[in-house]
Design goal:
With 424 residues, this protein is an all-beta fold. 0% of the residues lie in helices and 44% in strands.
């Protein structure tokens, strides 16, 4: 490029002419050179690709020197590719078409790690692994999981986890597994009265979470035997759990043991004949004990009794001539499964034999009932040293001329007992 003198060179008109030559100028103008940057792209975190261009207008083997440049920046986005130091020299007038370097997001894979916990406990920390993070770039935010606290599997989700605009995240969810809690059941048994059976009434306790709804069933709950005793073993078998929250637990035991008492059955006993009488010298009658249906079928008791005179506590002696009097008959029964409450009876021994005086009726008064109708009232006179029990009733009515038996007389006696009249 420049101005150059145009000289005469070999120009002539022959010998006939004398030439006068005036020089001219040759001007060389710059050639038009179009350079177009080629668009480029790369992934975030990767080095720039070579910046290249295409050209149009370059003459021969003329070189283009220098290099393209781009706008600075490494985050995801579009950056202009500029001419930089690119030059073909003074012979060219360059028209430059800019290009674009596109930085694309890097692929970041985040994989949540599977976790587990036991029902009722707090969540473990939710963690992850990553692949594709550039340098010391941070990942911010936290994983979350699907809500729920019952036993089951819950997806671990990306939550707020992010590495920023420079990354496209491929997220692999994990699983939080909530496992059943171990449930240990204990039993307590109610003490009860002896009933001839081994069955026990039991209640349950456990280590459930407060507020959880659980119930129990069982196959059997039995005392070790049916007899009375303190601290007797009670065994419960076939325990199972059910209820609203039963699925959150794993039962560690299906049997349990405890202790309870079987207390004696309370039974009132008395004599089947609460009053009997004999004469001095008679052998004692048979005293049958009435259990008032309190003794269970098949159970028996060892029976005995005492016969003691009320006045001095002496035992009845049929060989004694001074054995008359009133005796308390106290029945007794023994069976370790019962507690017997005793109602005593009475035995009266009337005097008998030489020296015994007859008990005689004596007129007490005559009562006018209506005109020409009177009732004679009698009492009995006992001249013996001990009381004599006198019967009343038909066997002891007075009979005779002028006595109206349609209105029976009521004899006066020392007791309300039916006994025969004693005669000498």
């Amino acid at each position: 490029m420049g101005d150059y003198v145009i000289q005469q060179g070999s120009v002539t008109a022959g010998a006939n002419y004398t030439l006068t030559y005036e020089e001219g100028t040759l001007s060389i103008d710059p050639a038009s050179l179009t350079i177009s940057a080629v668009d480029k792209s790369k992934t975030y975190g990767v080095a720039d690709p070579a910046l290249t261009y295409t050209q149009s207008g370059l003459v021969g083997s003329d070189p283009i020197n220098g290099a393209l440049t781009r706008v600075a920046g490494e985050d995801v986005g579009a950056y202009a590719i500029e001419q930089g130091t690119l030059d073909a020299g003074a012979n060219y007038s360059i028209t430059f078409n800019t290009g674009t370097l596109s930085i694309d997001p890097a692929a970041l894979t985040i994989s949540a790690e599977d976790k587990s916990k036991t029902y009722g406990l707090g969540d473990p920390a939710l963690t992850y692994t990553q692949s594709g993070l550039v340098g010391s770039d941070p990942i911010n935010g936290a994983l979350t999981r699907v809500a729920g606290e019952d036993v089951g599997a819950y997806a671990i989700e990306q939550g707020t986890l992010s590495a920023g605009a420079n990354y496209t995240i491929a997220y692999n969810p994990g699983t939080l597994t909530i496992d059943p809690a171990s449930l240990t059941v204990t039993v307590s048994a109610s003490s009860r009265e002896y009933d001839g059976f081994r069955d026990a009434t039991v209640s349950f306790a456990d280590n459930r979470l407060t507020g959880d709804l659980l119930s129990y069933s069982y196959t059997i709950a039995l005392f070790v035997d049916e007899n009375v005793g303190n601290g007797k073993d009670v065994n419960v078998l076939g325990i199972s759990v059910y209820g609203t929250d039963a699925g959150n637990y794993s039962l560690t035991n299906t049997s349990a043991s405890t202790t309870a008492d079987i207390t004696p059955k309370e039974v009132n006993i008395s004599l089947e004949e609460p009053f009997l009488y004999i004469r001095e010298g008679d052998e004692l009658p048979e005293f049958a004990i009435d259990y008032h249906f309190g003794l269970l079928p098949g159970d028996v008791a060892n029976e005995t009794y005492t016969v003691l005179r009320d006045s001095d506590g002496a035992m009845y002696d049929p060989s004694s001539s001074v054995s008359a009097g009133s005796y308390t008959v106290t029945p007794a029964a023994y069976n370790s499964n019962y507690n017997f409450t005793v109602e005593a009876g009475m035995l009266h021994v009337n005097p008998y034999g030489p020296g015994t005086r007859a008990v005689k009726p004596v007129l007490n008064c005559i009562e006018r009932i209506r005109n020409n109708y009177y009732v004679a009232n009698f009492e009995y006179r006992n001249d013996n040293d001990v009381a004599v029990y006198i019967p009343w009733g038909e066997d002891n009515m007075l009979v005779g001329s002028g006595i109206d038996t349609s209105i029976p007389s009521t004899p006066v006696s020392y007791t309300h007992l039916t006994l025969p009249t004693i005669t000498e």
